[in-house]
Amino acid sequence: MLAKPIHTYRPYWAKRFGTAKMLPMTRAEMDELGWDSCDIILITGDCYIDHPSFGMALVGRLLEAQGFRVGIIAQPDWQNASAFKALGKPNLYFGVTAGNMDSMVNRYTADRKIRSDDAYTPDAAPNKRPDRAVLVYSQRCREAYSDVPLVIGSIEASLRRIAHYDYWSDKVRRSILVDSKADILLYGNAERALVELSHRIAKGEKVSEIQDIRGTAFLRKKIPDGWSEIESTKLDRPGTVDKVTDPYEMGLYSKAGGKADASCATPDGKSDLTLIKPALPAGTKAIEIVRKPKADRAKQVVRLPDYEAVLQDPVLYAHASRVLHLEANPGNARALVQRHGDREVWLNPPPIPLTTKEMDYVYDMPYARAPHPIYNNAKIPAWEMIRFSVNIMRGCFGGCTFCSITEHEGRIIQSRSEASILKEVEEIRDKVDGFTGVISDLGGPTANMYRIACKSEKIEQSCRKLSCVYPGICENLNTDHSALIQLYRKARAIKGVKKILIGSGLRYDLAVKSPEYVKELVQHHVGGYLKIAPEHSEANVLSKMMKPGMDAYDEFKVMFEKFSAEAGKKQYLIPYFIAAHPGTTDNDMLNLALWLKKYDFKLDQVQTFTPTPMAMATAMYHSGKNPLRKVTADSDDVPIPKAGNVRKLHKAFIRYHDPNNWPMLREALQKMGRADLIGNSKQHLIPAWQPLSSKPITTVRGEQLERTVRPRRVVEGKRKYS
Questions:
Q1: 619, 317 in Cβ contact below 8 A?
Q2: How far apart are alpha carbons 142 and 128 in whole angstroms?
Q3: How do 529-535 and 572-579 pair as beta strands?
Q4: pTM confidence score
Q5: Environment class of 584 (CB within 10 Å of its CB; exposed 0-12, middle 13-18, buried 19+)
Q6: Are 409 and 394 in contact (CB under 8 A)?
Q7: Distance of alpha carbon 21 from alpha carbon 18, whole angstroms
Q8: Among 629, 630, 546, 533, residue whose Cα is nearest residue 582
Q9: Among 279, 414, 493, 580, which is 20 to 30 Å from 427 by CA?
Q10: Closest CA to 587 of 518, 659, 639
Q11: Is the peptide bond before 611 cis (omega within 30 degrees of 0)?
């Protein structure tokens, strides 16, 4: 897969203005830089922090390095268009994003309640961005300057590039391209597409005519000439599949030694039937079979079911989701098209992943590594969380169905060089206020996928698997952790660095393939507690998540405890679980609660499943079918815990130790015929008594401590408590 390196473009003429300490947010800052206008203005739902973990800073610095004058309008007042005119009219285009998070996930809990804070806003102030921010910002940009090209991107736009189920309105919505009226959508990590698009617009090309860049989506009236169209339903038929008759067994059947009989034309399964192949008539000539040459995949487009069809038929929706995920490998993916009314939403194949040299180019920009001065000394929770962390890679080949990382960043791991990462650690030490010698994370979407890839580039480019580690680790995957071990050792040897913690999610089924890595991690990079995510204990639920079984957790736990003991440290694993995931029954959650009780886990934070656009688990939630297999109308139904009281119950099972959940759990256990789990011994799940005052559970350094309260008797026949 060849692509023009993003650092080899000839810079735009405005490169002469040099590098800004901070990308401007006001006209006064533009004046200080000597700018009369901006070439590109970026609109974001997050506050502006000049750090590569924040999308607008990364994109802005990348475009600045290409020679463009880039301004940022962060968290504008969306009630009218005036805030969108703050920096004047951009010369090339508006770039619109909701921010690092989907605006609906950012603003609402899993129960669809508005959150009281926003981690990406100064002082965590709520309501600084609208619902469906990309749509609202796009409309205001059009109102401000209707003739300026409009480019949309970010995770919100990326995951809504085709017709998608929207949990918050409980319906299938159109592609965000249609509703935003944008000229073009960039999906995934779009550096490569963004650089090419910007230079082509700067050279005078009309954005409406730029339709050949990978990783982009746009609207068309019809399929262009020279393309062959394939119906997705022929690739993965979403209906009852009839058995195909074998053309070589079209003869008549007869009993042994007898003549052919029409009544024996269909075999009845008895062993004394013999196939009699009919004789060809005299003079019959054989027909030469001429096979068509292999089609050019670069000129094939797969037609997904229309928006109107998936709106009405959940089975077709699940089918469309499955096909989109199967066409996600940059090495073999074809273009996709989906009709919306009289318009075609066209998706070019995914972008070619960045090389290590390109990743270094992106992350080695002159970031200020601080919030914009306009925020003064406001506390910004998202910044506080990542200010001392380093992103070492991107992408994830885990394929967890509830997660959107794979759909957005892709399955191919893109890693930075060791030198680039170590340089950033030194910059944090030297530049970031408040550094005490502790690096909070060296990671990414997954902590331990750095430089891990398929053993064969040819196999990688032709693979159509949804995961490299499910149902087991692929034999073609190189699981060597030596590069990561070496990175850890060199990073903690840097002068002024006292400790390096690993805060990113660990893929423990991958980690156990390298005991040396687990030892290195446990003995040097765990601060007493290590969070890992089994997500569930029950096999049938894990199969819907595409997560490993608990055997992998048990194997990792043995290693963790062994290496902790060898180092003379008392350290603990903190498992993380999801409640109400598609495929989960009440009994599954009960079994998980019993597992937690067995190992004396009392978890404080619990995630209830939230159906995010484009995730495979969301297709399960909406359709009740399993898109991990071919989806048919008569496929087995997947149990979906949708009702609010069921979702609350599933969450309560994980927090079985919270007295506030005991009444609900008692009622549920009695209905399930498991009243034997209600009692006052250690063997019971929950007690038969209720405290007079259900005070909250307190947490001390990660350990749950129940406050002593006076209980009252609630079940006759049980002993009294004082």
A1: yes
A2: 21
A3: parallel
A4: 0.87
A5: buried
A6: yes
A7: 10
A8: 546
A9: 414
A10: 639
A11: no
Both tokens assigned to 205:
């090309």
Query: What is the C-alpha to C-alpha distance for residues 548 and 690, in angstroms, rounded to an integer?
Result: 37
Domains and CATH numbers, the chain: 13-221+342-347 (3.40.50.2300), 228-238+295-335 (no CATH), 388-656 (3.80.30.20)
pLDDT in tens, 450-477: 999 999 999 999 999 999 999 999 999 9
C-alpha span between 45 and 42 (Å, rounded)? 10
What residues contact 178, with CB distance under 8 A and at least 6 apart?
219, 340, 343, 345
Contact 375, 122 (CB under 8 A): yes
- Residue 152 CA neighbour count, 13 Å, CB half: 32
Report d(CA 401, CA 467) in Å as an integer.
Answer: 10
Tell me: the pLDDT tens digits for 224-253? 999 999 999 887 766 443 343 343 444 444
- Cβ neighbourhood burial of 171 (10 Å; 0-12, 13-18, 19+): exposed
Within 367-526, where are the H helices?
381-386, 405-409, 418-431, 457-462, 482-492, 508-511, 515-524
Nearest to 391 by CA among 372, 402, 405: 405
Distance CA 580, CA 676 (A): 24
Question: Please, which residues have CB within 8 angstroms of residue 249's CB and are 6 or more apart in sequence?
Answer: 275
Neighbouring CB atoms inside 10 A of 489's CB total 12
Separation between Cα atoms, residue 231 and residue 635, nearest integer Å: 21
Question: Which range has the worst mean pLDDT, 125-129, 335-339, 575-579, 689-693?
Answer: 689-693
Instruction: For residue 394, give the DSSP letter.
Output: E
Count other C-beta atoms under 10 Å from residue 309's C-beta. Answer: 16
Q: Which structure tokens are listed for 336?
A: 């996709």
Measured between alpha carbons, how far is residue 391 from residues 98, 443, 448, 453 in Å? Answer: 21, 5, 12, 18
Contacts of 118 (CB under 8 A, 6+ apart): 106, 107, 124, 125, 126, 127, 128, 129
Rounded-to-integer distance, Cα 484 and Cα 392, Å: 10
Distance CA 536, CA 375 (A): 41
Enter the DSSP assignment of 261. Answer: -
Strands (E), 35-128: 40-44, 49-50, 70-74, 93-96
β 40-44/252-255 pair status: unpaired
CA distance 437 to 641: 46
Average pLDDT of the chain to the nearest whole number: 90
User: What is the DSSP annotation of 675-713?
Assistant: GGGBSSSTTSSB-SEEESS-PPPEEETTEEEPPP--EEE
Distance between CA atoms of 383 and 53, rounded to whole angstroms?
9
Do residues 361 and 12 touch, judged by C-beta distance below 8 A?
no
- Is the Cβ–Cβ distance between 193 and 211 less than 8 Å? no
**What are the residues whose beta carbons fall under 8 Å from the beta carbon of 82, sequence distance 6 or more?**
none
Q: Measured in whole angstroms, how far is the alpha carbon of residue 105 from the centre of its chain? A: 13
Q: How far apart are CA 621 and CA 610, in angstroms?
A: 10
Q: Which tokens sit at 684?
A: 């019971």
293 burial level (CB within 10 Å; 0-12, 13-18, 19+) = exposed
Give the span between the Cα atoms of 177 and 191, in whole angstroms: 19
Q: Strand, helix or coil at 390?
A: strand
C-alpha span between 560 and 382 (Å, rounded): 30
pLDDT tens column, 481-532: 999 999 999 999 999 999 999 999 999 999 999 999 999 999 999 999 999 9
